[in-house]
Design goal:
11 strands, 11 helices, Rossmann fold, elongated, five-stranded parallel beta sheet, six-stranded parallel beta sheet, alpha/beta
Length: 306
């Protein structure tokens, strides 16, 4: 089979060759690219003869997929699969294997990094020190004793719950499907939005979760509450979020994901919203996580070939 890796996986090239060594040993071909191609015509030239496509968060459109006549499987080194035309794959029985679980620790740690930055104004105070200022009588907030509302209790959500409890938070959670976990205090989404001091999102992007947190839900939040999104950008209505931040109806937001992948347009509504900490979709991006996701992606290929 012809196996093509369309983009870098963020790992050392020697490790990439080590992970892919089994492919050639088993009589298959392997081609990899060190750049990401966003033009569909040029991307198609890379993958048109592939039996298996490997990628990270590279967009795979219906146009590209429909012109890959030999395609039998897709291995994505990513948790979400919304960057791939899943409907086309369903129609043509092309399985998509993801790298679920590789970034659980990484995303959880960034989640709390964003919370602590908002609560202790780390980014803002760093600028103050560099400008020769004092703390100007600023005092921060502690996580201990706060109500942490976790939306989505998959692997990442459950780990966030564990860490939140370690910080001394009262934790409540919402999930579309309730699990029988005695240690998780499930409530309705409206109750979570009303009672939480911190709301954090950990759901995939689907037709059911797009704009799950719309203006109506955001208006339920306390004025001193903050919201964190390290899930998918379209889960929140960011225009409504920016509006309410500017009106002082929400205290702050830590956002790692947007409607599109960075770079983000300079007129994005959150760019001039107050009390925001924005990062360019880096929740998954630690050395440890990138190594693990590459291992999973190649294991998925190995198992498929078997």
């Amino acid at each position: 089979m012809n196996i093509v890796l369309t983009e870098p996986l963020g790992i050392n090239e020697n490790y990439l060759l080590e992970l892919s060594d089994f492919i050639k040993k088993e009589g298959h071909s392997f081609t990899y690219y060190n750049t990401k191609e966003t033009n569909d015509e040029l991307l198609l030239k890379r993958v048109e003869n592939a039996d298996i496509i490997m990628l990270a968060n590279q967009t795979l459109s219906r146009y590209v997929l429909s012109n890959c006549k030999n395609l039998k499987m897709i291995s994505t080194a990513f948790t979400g699969i919304d960057h791939i035309d899943t409907e086309y794959c369903k129609e043509h029985n092309i399985p998509i294997l993801n790298a679920s679980g590789y970034s659980t620790t990484a995303v959880c740690e960034l989640t709390f990094g964003l919370i602590i930055d908002l609560y202790r104004k780390i980014t803002e105070l760093d600028k103050a020190v560099r400008n020769g200022e004092t703390r100007n009588n600023f005092s921060g907030l502690e996580l201990s004793g706060k109500t942490l509302g976790v939306i989505g209790t998959g692997k990442i959500g459950r780990r966030v719950i564990e860490i939140g409890k370690a910080f001394g938070c009262k934790v409540i959670a919402y999930n579309r499907t309730k699990h029988n976990e005695d240690e998780i205090n499930y409530v309705s989404l409206d109750t979570l939005m009303k009672e939480s001091d911190i709301v954090t999102l950990h759901v995939p992007l689907t037709s059911e979760t797009e704009n799950l947190i719309n203006e109506e839900k955001l208006l339920l939040m306390k004025e001193n509450a903050v919201i964190i999104n390290t899930a998918r950008g379209k889960v929140i209505d960011n225009k409504a979020l920016a509006k309410l931040l500017k009106e002082g109806k929400i205290a702050g937001a830590g956002i790692d994901v947007f409607e599109t992948e960075p770079p983000i347009e300079k007129n994005h509504p959150l760019f001039d919203a107050p009390n925001t900490v924005l990062t360019p979709h880096i929740g998954f991006a630690t050395k440890e996580a990138l190594d693990v996701r590459a291992e999973i992606a190649f294991d998925n290929v190995r198992n498929f070939l078997k």
